[in-house]
Structure formats: structure tokens, C-alpha cells
Design goal:
By secondary structure, this protein is mainly alpha-helical. Helix content is 67%, strand content 5%.
């Protein structure tokens, strides 16, 4: 068999464990042969044969001088014996074939390589790739190596430290060595690791990792060093072959071939489940350093501009599939004029699931490189997905930069939309003062830009802030102002957009009336909402209407109708992959079932809601647990 993976991934540890688990199976004979010298050059075949013969008990004085004689002696001496032969750091298949113990069927040969030596498969070797340690094992290894120091470091900090080592055993051990007995400096190390994977290389006093990276880079085939450097410029943690093709400026098929070569060199990781590639953080830091040193700011900047532009272009049709809302910006206007490709919502959601971290990073890259039009428009394209899935930190971080970019680019309409989107994040987090400030600024920008749709939207959002403050009269007044804008410029708004705007305003009004327990009025306002939003393909708003109808029915005592509405809403949110909203619908479903005396079904709904809230890190899991405890305590 052959075990392959990058330096420090635990090849030797795995083989040692393999041997010690059943030493008798190998006749308690362990022979280790070095195939590579310290400088990376290959050990001569005769020397490797000599190492094996010594392990088999042949003294130095009896070793023949010729390679052929040593090979003959190896097969004679090894015949019929049981032993474990380990060839460490093989470079080529030729180093291995002479050492296959053909006359010893009970012997085991294990080869370790830093790269994928595919020709070994031709000789019936079993392929054992080593990848990242799973998160739990990474954290366990760090805690074990820190010993008593681990007890002086917060559990959350330990988890983050282990995760930043990227499942790399050598790096985890190096970090533990630096922190053992020095828990006081953990925040400094944590800050360095957050900043860059290069900090991990700097911790390596033995330079083991640096030597591996230097050797791997020096041994790349012609053309691959540039590929290695260019890929480091891609944003996000993982990427597909299509994004790599843009970075490399080659066709996707050629990009995939080059990527696979780097995977075989243990410089990239390929995930078959997602069909995506990624760097280890420490390897990416090395590639990025080389890109900056070799290619310089002009070439890197050109590639980065090509990349962030491509990501924005890709995001536009995907964003359009998530919502029929209007958007400002040249790239959205071009898409609308050209009648761009129509994408199914499921496809768009799957695309964003994979690419949203890269889009978030693209905003930072574009802003840093002065590509401000790209930066703020990428925020526009990201908004709906971040909103649907509650990625609040990324939402606020990107939109802080997006607002600055829109201001720098003097894009008044862009500022209007991006600052409104940022306000939506503040509102979702309950930061009402910040939300009102953003929506007020958005309204002012809309008036300056003479943008009625922006003006209508700002009034709508200000109404939501007032509703969150339980100032229902102010909220309803803001919704009326929003609708008045629609009426004022009706000729300039397509009929379908007008219908959507009014349906949303009715939804907001109904939610506000729920605060006053005006169940019948709230239900009447959204009675036609589910059918309308189903017709235009907006499952999220259809589900929100069902939630209003369910709460109205629950409040008025019609638990059967409430159960039906909350069940439909939960299903719709689940289909839209909106897990936070799904959890909330399940919580309400539990309330309705409990009120109807359907205890076991209520428990199941609460448990499902709690599981989702816990997976999202949402504090509402505690409130759901209280409901579960109350139901269980009813049994006495």
C-alpha cells in the first residue's frame, strides 16, 4: 500500500500505529528505508537495498558492493519471512519496484510519498490518501498536546485555534509547543493566525514546513509554478474549476487538468462531494507570498480584477432567481436589458451555498484594489442570500465596505441601495437605532438620486423599524407613505412590480396588526398573499403570509387552521433552505399543537425547532427548551 499526503500530515504516525496494533502479524520485524535525502534528492537504489538487508539481519561486512548482487540477496534473505517494510518519502515508482518482496507473501510493504505516485497503482498498491483531521480530532490533538495549559484557555478559543490549523497535525503540534505554559499569550497568537496562514510557517522553528513547500514548488513541472501562484489570488476558501479558469485565463478543461496536477503534488485538496478545490491555509499563504514576490502588484492586480468581475457577473442571474426585487447598478441594468439567462431558484441557492464566501471575499478584494463599482454591486448581489440565511457578520462586514465604495465612486443610487441593505441587517439583529439611521440615509439618497423606488423602499423599511419598536401607528403611516409613492409614479413601474410592492406592504401591515392582536384584520390583509407569491415564484414571502395567517388563527383560537398554516410555512422555508425561518415556523407549530392538546406532536415540532436553532447558534433554542420542559413536566 502507499500512504500519501503533504509533509506533517501524519504519515509516520499512522504507520507506527498500524505496526503496533498487531506486531505479531509482522513477526515483530519493522524495517524502515529512507528514499529521499535531506536535500530532496533520491537515495541511490543500492543504498536502499543495503538499508533493507541490514533490517533483515545482514551485517555491513556481508553486503555486496553491486546493486544486482544486493537485489539477489534481498530476495533470498526475505523469502518466506514476515515483516513490515516501510519506504519513506519515495519520489518515483522505480525506487519501489526493486523492493517488492515477491518471495515473501506474508510480508507487508508500505510506501509513503508526499505526492500521488500514480504508477504505483500499476503494481497493485492500495491507495491511502491522508487529508485533514476532522474538527473534533483536531481539537482533541491540540488539547492533548497542551496538557495542563489547555485548562487555562477558553473552550471557544481552543476550538478556533484548532480550526485555524486547518486539520494539519504538524501545525497543531507546533502551535501547542509555542503555547504550552504560556496561556497568557494566546490572544496574540490567535490574532496572528486570523491574519494569515503565514503565521503558522513562522512558528516552525525546524523549518520542516518551509522546506516541504520550497521543495514542492521547485519540483513543479514547467508552467505549474504560475498556476500555483495565480490560484492563491482566488477569494474564499474553496473554488471550482470554472473560477480557476478565470484566474488562470485558460479554458475550464485545461484548468481542471492543471488543478489535478497540483492535487497530485499535495498542494491542493479536491473534495469529491462538492467537486471543489481548496488550499491548506499554510500552503495558500506560501503561494500568495510567491505571487507577490514573483509577479508583483501589476500582474496580481490584473488577475484579481478579472476574478472579482467574473464573480459579480456570475452572481447577477443567481441573485435574480432568489427575488424579483429591483436593483440598481450598471451590471444589473445590462442583465435586464439583455434578457439574461433564467436560473431555477434551486440552482441559484446551490450556487450561493458554494460561492457566498468567495463573494464576500470579493467585496474586500475589490474595495482594497479600488474597484469600487464592483465592490458595491457585489453587495447588492449578495444581499438576498445573506438575508435569507442570516449570515449577519458577513452581511455587515461586506456592506460596511460597500457603503464606503459607493461613496468613493459617487454612486448615489448605489449608496441608496447598499445602505438600505445594511439597515436590514441591523433591523434583523434588533439594532433599531442603527437601522433607522441607515434607512433615513437611504431615503435621503433616493430623493437626491430622484429614485422613486428607493424612496418607496426606504419608507417601507422605516415602517418595519417602527413596528419592531411596537409603534404601530407610525409603522402604518410609513407603509401608507410607501404606497403613496407607488401611486405617484405608477406609470413608471411595471404592473407586476406594483402588485408585488403592494402585496409586501399588506404583509407588513398585517404583521404590525398582529402586535395589536387584531387577528381578523391581519388575516384579511394577507388572505390572497400566498396565491400571489406562489404565482410569481417567491416561496419565502408565500411562507411569511402563511405565518401571519397561522398566528392570526392561533390568536383567535382556531388551532386546527394554525397548525395547517405553520406546517405549510415550515415546508416552504425548508424548500427555500431558510433554516432560521423554518425553525421559527416549527416553534409556532409546536405552540399551536400544544394549545390543541396534541402533546406528542408538539414535542416533536419543538425538538425539530430546537435542533435547527442549535445548529445555527441561535439563542432561541433556550426558549424552545423551556417549552419542551413545560410539556414534559405536565406528566408530573
Amino acid at each position: 500500500m502507499f500512504v500519501h499526503g503533504p509533509e506533517g500530515m501524519g504519515r509516520a504516525s499512522l504507520i507506527s500505529e498500524f505496526y503496533h496494533e498487531d506486531r505479531d502479524a509482522f513477526g515483530r520485524v519493522y524495517i524502515e528505508v529512507a528514499a529521499r535525502q535531506a536535500d530532496g534528492t533520491m537515495v541511490p537504489p543500492g543504498e536502499m537495498l543495503g538499508q533493507v538487508l541490514r533490517g533483515l539481519g545482514v551485517p555491513d561486512t556481508e553486503l555486496d558492493s553491486s546493486d544486482a548482487a544486493r537485489l539477489y540477496a534481498f530476495h533470498r534473505v526475505s523469502a518466506g519471512k514476515r515483516f513490515l517494510l516501510v519506504i519513506k518519502d519515495a519520489v518515483s515508482v522505480e525506487q519501489v519496484t526493486n523492493l517488492i518482496p515477491a518471495a515473501a507473501p506474508d510480508a507487508v510493504l508500505v510506501v509513503t510519498t508526499r505526492t500521488m505516485v500514480r504508477d504505483l497503482l500499476l503494481h497493485d498498491f492500495a491507495d491511502i490518501p491522508l487529508g485533514k483531521l476532522p474538527q473534533a480530532e483536531s481539537r482533541e490533538l491540540l488539547t492533548d498536546r497542551l496538557k495542563s495549559t489547555a485548562g487555562k484557555i477558553a473552550a471557544d478559543t481552543l476550538r478556533e485555534l484548532a480550526d485555524l490549523c486547518d486539520g494539519y497535525p504538524l501545525l497543531i503540534k507546533m502551535l501547542a509547543a509555542q503555547l504550552t505554559g504560556r496561556a497568557r499569550v494566546v490572544e496574540r497568537f490567535l490574532a496572528d493566525l486570523r491574519r494569515s496562514g503565514a503565521a503558522l510557517i513562522e512558528m516552525d522553528r525546524s523549518q520542516q514546513m518551509a522546506r516541504f513547500l520550497d521543495l514542492a514548488y521547485e519540483n513543479l513541472e514547467p508552467g505549474l509554478p504560475l498556476v500555483y501562484r495565480r490560484l492563491a489570488l482566488l477569494p474564499g476558501q474553496s473554488f471550482g474549476a470554472d473560477a480557476a479558469a478565470i484566474a488562470l485565463d485558460v479554458p475550464p478543461v485545461e484548468a481542471e487538468r492543471l488543478l489535478d496536477q497540483l492535487v497530485d503534488m499535495s498542494l491542493l485538496v479536491f473534495d469529491e462531494d462538492t467537486d471543489r478545490y481548496s488550499f491548506y491555509r499554510v500552503v495558500r499563504a506560501d503561494a500568495l507570498r510567491r505571487a507577490q514576490e514573483v509577479d508583483g502588484p501589476r500582474e496580481c492586480g490584473s488577475a484579481r480584477a478579472r476574478i472579482v468581475t467574473w464573480y459579480l457577473d456570475q452572481a447577477v442571474p443567481m441573485d435574480a432567481a432568489l427575488s424579483r426585487r429591483w436593483r440598481v447598478g450598471p451590471v444589473f441594468e445590462r442583465y435586464a436589458r439583455a434578457g439574461g439567462p433564467v436560473v431555477a431558484r434551486e440552482e441559484a441557492t446551490a450556487w450561493f451555498d458554494a460561492e457566498w464566501p468567495a463573494l464576500v471575499a470579493s467585496v474586500g478584494m475589490a474595495h482594497e484594489d479600488g474597484l469600487h463599482e464592483i465592490a458595491w454591486q457585489t453587495c447588492v448581489a449578495l444581499f438576498k442570500y445573506l438575508h435569507l440565511h442570516g449570515h449577519y457578520d458577513a452581511w455587515l462586514d461586506t456592506h460596511r465596505l460597500g457603503v464606503l465604495s459607493a461613496q468613493t465612486a459617487d454612486a448615489t443610487a448605489g449608496l441608496m441601495q447598499v445602505i438600505s441593505q445594511r439597515g436590514a441587517a441591523h433591523l434583523a439583529l434588533g439594532e433599531l437605532r442603527s437601522a433607522r439611521a441607515d434607512f433615513t440615509a437611504s431615503l435621503e439618497s433616493a430623493v437626491r438620486a430622484v429614485h422613486p423606488l428607493g424612496e418607496q423602499s426606504a419608507h417601507e423599511w422605516l415602517g418595519k423599524v417602527a413596528a419592531a419598536e411596537r409603534d404601530i401607528d407610525t409603522a402604518l403611516d410609513a407603509y401608507d407613505k410607501s404606497e403613496a409613492v407607488i401611486a405617484r409614479v405608477a406609470d413608471a413601474i411595471p404592473a407586476d412590480q406594483q402588485g408585488r410592492m403592494r402585496a409586501l406592504l399588506d404583509l407588513h401591515r398585517a404583521r404590525a396588526l398582529l402586535v395589536r392582536s387584531e387577528w381578523a384584520r391581519a388575516a384579511a390583509l394577507v388572505a390572497d398573499g400566498p396565491r400571489f407569491f406562489e404565482r410569481i415564484g417567491e416561496a419565502e414571502n408565500q411562507a411569511k403570509c402563511r405565518m401571519v395567517l397561522g398566528r392570526a388563527a392561533h390568536g383567535s383560537g382556531d388551532q386546527s387552521e394554525a397548525v395547517r398554516c405553520f406546517s405549510l410555512a415550515a415546508t416552504l422555508f425548508e424548500g427555500d433552505n431558510a433554516r432560521r425561518a423554518q425553525a421559527d415556523a416549527l416553534r409556532w407549530l409546536g405552540d399551536a399543537l400544544a394549545a390543541a392538546g396534541r402533546r406528542d406532536e408538539a414535542l416533536q415540532a419543538y425538538l425539530s425547532a430546537k435542533e435547527l436553532f442549535v445548529s445555527l447558534g441561535d439563542a432561541r433554542a433556550d426558549a424552545v427548551q423551556e417549552r419542551i420542559d413545560a410539556l414534559l413536566n405536565e406528566d408530573g
